[in-house]
TrEMBL record, chain A:
Name this polypeptide is given: Putative hydroxymethylpyrimidine transport system ATP-binding protein
Single GO term (MF): ATP hydrolysis activity
Pfam families the UniProt entry points to: ABC_tran
InterPro entries associated with the record: AAA+_ATPase, ABC_transporter-like_ATP-bd, ABC_transporter-like_CS, ABC_transporter_ATP-bind, P-loop_NTPase
Keywords, sorted A to Z: ATP-binding, Nucleotide-binding, Transport
Source species: Paenibacillus typhae
Gene3D superfamilies for this protein: P-loop containing nucleotide triphosphate hydrolases
Organism lineage string: Bacteria, Bacillati, Bacillota, Bacilli, Bacillales
UniProtKB/TrEMBL annotation, chain B:
Swiss-Prot/TrEMBL keywords: Cell membrane, Membrane, Transmembrane, Transmembrane helix, Transport
Alphabetized Pfam families for the sequence: BPD_transp_1 (PF00528)
InterPro entries the UniProt entry points to: MetI-like, MetI-like_sf
Membrane-spanning intervals of the chain: 12-30, 70-91, 98-123, 129-148, 177-205, 225-251
Upper lineage: Bacteria, Bacillati, Bacillota, Bacilli, Bacillales
One Gene Ontology cellular component annotation held by this UniProt entry: plasma membrane
Cellular compartments annotated: Cell membrane
Keyword Kinase part of the UniProt annotation: no
Protein family membership: Belongs to the binding-protein-dependent transport system permease family.
Protein name: Putative hydroxymethylpyrimidine transport system permease protein
PROSITE patterns: ABC_TM1
A GO biological process held by the record: transmembrane transport
Membrane topology: Multi-pass membrane protein
UniProt organism field: Paenibacillus typhae
Length: 252, 258
């Protein structure tokens, strides 16, 4: 689905060394991959490069089996959800989610509305269609932003800490929802998180970002998974190991 | 509900109304008992009397003439200003070329330039609209351009990843976000239009509140002069409130503020 080889990126001259150097990553269709790493290690930059918002300084990217090196070749084809919800305050929840449809005009509006309604329903947001963002809590706004990203219909989704601002309970609910519905949605996800439990529970692979490149860690937990998995000894062990590796990477 | 509204109106406007009342009373008393010559400072009561006496002339001839100049000038300023502001936003080289000139144009005292404008465009409507346009056009351009300049930066990346074109960025986020600044420009502009029309009429012509007030000043008819000024000020306030109302309607429709 997405293949990155020897990618490098640095902010303009005089800003120190490159942020990303010699980074390679292969993402298979339907995979759920988490990116973890210390703050400022370049995770968000990597997602922005993949989304086509930044031009890398070197390396090759191919998307959907075709080379897509220019950022224009990827922009608009890959779903991207930034850290802030960025809902338009003058649009209702439904109109915010309809934005993607309005920009592309593929299919009928009724079908798009129907799809958004069912998305909102499964995200526990039924009945908020006509509310304005300012009337909703931070957690709800974040879920609406997720619904908007999903409604854009891209196969590959880049989510930059989508659940970072949520309270633990809401987060658990969303995890449960993702675990249940993920396979049926057929999307591929690259997911930034600081929550190691979340990374282990949701991902097929975890990529630890450090020094501009990635270390891959497979998650040996069979699917389908359930939310209760986090209380099992095997999970706790994995979590401990992951935390140690993350800590070591930061300490060096 | 109604009582609440009245209470709020009182709360908002009572202090200003009271101050105006006090000023009028003090003014009247000073003129009456201080024996100030009427041509130096007419009493509010004589201004009101002059207004009533000349009401057909003032409201039937001069006010419509001035209003026509203001409205035509405003339409021209708002139209050209919006187009130029938008053009400057879309083509940065245009902004770089035009913005400094615009600012320079505002440092030229218009009153000094106006006789030339009258020479070019004549004593009739054309010359007056030219003066109005030059006074009122600048705030619209600045409101449009500055409103669009920084608006929607934070949404830009998100919309780009959703596949938005430049035109869609403008329509979906930048224009709605620029509306408050745009309307501030329009509000300034409509007030400037009143000033511009008055200046234009002072320079010459045969109709309009500005022309009338100059003629009355020449004849030392101060009460009539003040009556015309009073009408101009009322006109300005009403026009300003109309723009505010238009803003309310449009902004409300867009759900920006509810």
């Amino acid at each position: 689905m997405l293949s990155i080889t020897n990618l490098s990126y640095s902010y303009g001259a005089g800003s120190g060394g490159p942020v990303i150097e010699g980074l390679s990553l292969n993402v298979q269709k339907g995979e759920f991959i988490s990116l973890v790493g210390a703050s400022g290690c370049g995770k968000s930059t990597l997602l922005r490069i993949i989304a086509g918002l930044l031009e890398p300084s070197g390396g090759d990217i191919s998307f959907g089996g075709k080379p897509a090196n220019g950022s224009a070749a990827r922009l608009g084809k890959i779903g991207y959800m930034p850290q802030q919800d960025l809902l338009l305050p003058w649009r209702t929840v439904l109109d915010n989610c309809l934005l993607a449809w309005e920009l592309k005009r593929s299919g009928s509006k009724a079908a798009a509305v129907q799809q958004i309604r069912s998305l909102l329903h499964s995200l526990g947001l039924a009945g908020t269609e006509n509310a304005y963002p300012e009337e909703l809590s931070g957690g709800m706004r974040q879920r609406i932003a997720l619904a908007r990203t999903l409604s854009a219909g891209s196969e590959l989704l880049l989510l930059d800490e989508p659940f970072g601002a949520l309270d633990a309970l809401t987060k658990r609910g969303l995890h449960r929802w993702l675990l249940q519905l993920w396979s049926s949605l057929g999307r591929t996800v690259l997911f930034i998180t600081h929550d190691l439990e979340e990374a282990l529970l949701l991902s097929d692979r975890i990529c630890l970002m450090h020094g501009g490149s990635l270390q891959e860690i497979a998650v040996p937990l069979p699917r389908p998974r359930h939310g209760e998995l986090i209380y099992q000894p095997q999970f706790m062990q994995l979590r401990e190991g992951l935390e140690r590796r993350l800590y070591e990477s930061i300490a060096h | 509900m109604r009582a609440l509204r009245i209470k709020r109106l009182l709360h908002n406007y009572a202090p200003a109304a009271l101050l105006v009342l006090v000023i009028i009373v003090v003014w009247e008393v000073i003129v009456r008992f201080g024996e100030v010559a009427a041509f130096i400072l007419p009493a509010p009561s004589s201004v009101w009397a002059a207004l009533l006496e000349h009401r057909t002339l003032l409201l039937g001839v001069h006010l419509p003439a001035t209003l026509q100049e203001i409205l035509l000038g405003f339409l021209l300023s708002a139209g050209c200003g919006t187009l130029l502001g938008l053009g400057m936003h879309l083509f940065r080289p245009l902004a770089k070329a035009v913005y400094p000139l615009l600012i320079v144009s505002q440092t030229i005292p218009l009153i000094a330039l106006s006789p030339i404008l009258i020479m070019w465009f004549g004593y009739s409507l054309g010359g007056k609209i030219a003066v109005v346009f030059l006074t009122a056009f600048f705030p619209v351009v600045v409101g449009t351009y500055d409103g669009l300049y920084k608006s929607g930066e934070q949404y830009k990346e998100l919309l780009l990843t959703l596949g938005a074109s430049r035109r869609q960025l403008l329509v979906k986020t930048q224009i709605p976000l620029a509306l408050p600044a745009y309307f501030s420009g329009l509000k300034l502009s409509i007030v400037y239009c009143v000033i511009g029309a008055t200046i234009g009429e002072w320079l010459g012509g045969s109709r309009g509140l500005g022309y009338y007030s100059r003629r009355m000043a020449g004849n030392l008819h101060s009460a009539e002069l003040f009556a015309a000024v009073f009408l101009l000020s009322v006109l300005g306030v009403l026009l300003f409130l109309s723009v505010c109302a238009a803003e309310q309607i449009i902004v409300k429709k867009r759900g920006l503020r509810r």
